[in-house]
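User: Show me a protein chain along with its predicted structure.
Assistant: Here is one chain, sequence first, then structure tokens.
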Amino acid sequence: MARIDDCTWIAARQTAQGAKLALGEMIASLRNWDLFGTMTYDQRRYPKERLWGDTWVPRVVPGDRAKRDFLGWVNDGSGALARRIEFVVGMEYQKNGWPHFHALLDVGGLDDGDIARIGLLWYARYGYDRLEIPRSVTDCAAYAAKYLVKDISRGDVLFSKRLAEPLDVVQRRLPGQRW
């Protein structure tokens, strides 16, 4: 016979899984996501600090600085593509304390060289990135549920400002109109 604590834990876990799937599907339906992205920092590019004795470790990029770096990259990427990039991104921390990002990006459609253009912007400044074209909306939902939703409780999920704008308004915007 199951104890009440076990039943409560099971119910809470099932509720959390259902919430993750629902929120993931909602995020997937917000835009026609063009790219999945994972961005990390190259720790060798950052100043080192003495841990003890002759042991030196890279100074960890703090979360608020990492968020500014990501937003700056989106802004510069928008300029490089000459169109606004909309995003949902979860920032999580590796075991060593370094932040990295998992993002869904709507770049307004992909042209030849777009992935390389914006990928090189991150690489040149911060480290490594992997940008991929999603195979399906289901993939977007699963990606959002796995990486983005788990960080909401920490406040490490960023949504672009115009993400709430209805998709039909975005699609009606003419080239050259203000973002």
